[in-house]
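Reviewer 2 asked us to include a model.

Predict the structure of this chain.
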Amino acid sequence: MIKLKRWFPIFFIILLFWITGCSSNSEDKSAKMSESNEVAMDSAESGSGEEADFYSGETVKAEKSSAAANVKIPNQMVIYQADLQLRVKKFDQTVRILEEKVIKYGGYIAESNVSKEGNELVSGSIKIRIPQKHFQTFLHDAESQAAEVLQRSITGQDVTEEYVDLESRLKSKKVVEERLLTFMKSTVKTEDLLKISADLASVQEEIEIIEGKMKFLDNQTSLSTVNITLYEKSVVVPTINKDKLNTWEKTKKQFMKSINMLLVGLSGLVVFIVGNLPVLAILFIIVFFLLYYLKKRKSRQGQE
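Predicted model (structure tokens):
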């Protein structure tokens, strides 16, 4: 019993230290759990805030990067344009042949005009859209119709990079549009709904602009442009009137003209004689006696 009484204080002190240690450990654990819960709540709140404003934070950047990575690079896209100046022998025939070639290759005439300078020079220009796969073939066919190729120029503009950039931007905007539509369905506050609606309208407008540019590039690359100017130098031969080739009619007309001239002359002579008959009678008498006198005088001189 004496030994137990000696060890009892020691056991009591050890028990006291053990209870104190367990109490401190439990407090530390509860504090740590409280801190972790607070951190989790803060992160959840910040996560919900980022989700509400996703289009202005890192989420959109990640989506854009993902959309850009998923863009498939198309084949090389080049806009071709050719300008030809041709001298032709027969303008109308050449235009008709070119129109037939355009229909054959699945193209169309975008613009056409013809002009004439006097009666000798005929010129015109034609703007043709032709599928790119038939571009070189059509140029060869057009040049084969010319008597002389005055000018030939071909240009090509590579728009592959521009098209890829537009496609990447379009996919990013589509992702933003889908997210905005999702938020609009779950939004309750009017203020948030108005803000999302405004952002959605802006994004959809940008999508329409991008799609318009892509359609324009698709059209320009799928159909090449060929501008052809045609010149025809023609020699004009005056037409002969058939009436001028009728010899018998011309002879009769000339004969009647001669008869008319003769009748007019005779009529004028008769008018002159009759109208001036008194004067002519006096002149005739004077001339008659003068000639008679001279004849008599000459005969006398001969006798002498």
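Residues 51-234 form one domain. Residues 134 and 140 are 10 Å apart (CA to CA). We have added this to the supplementary material.
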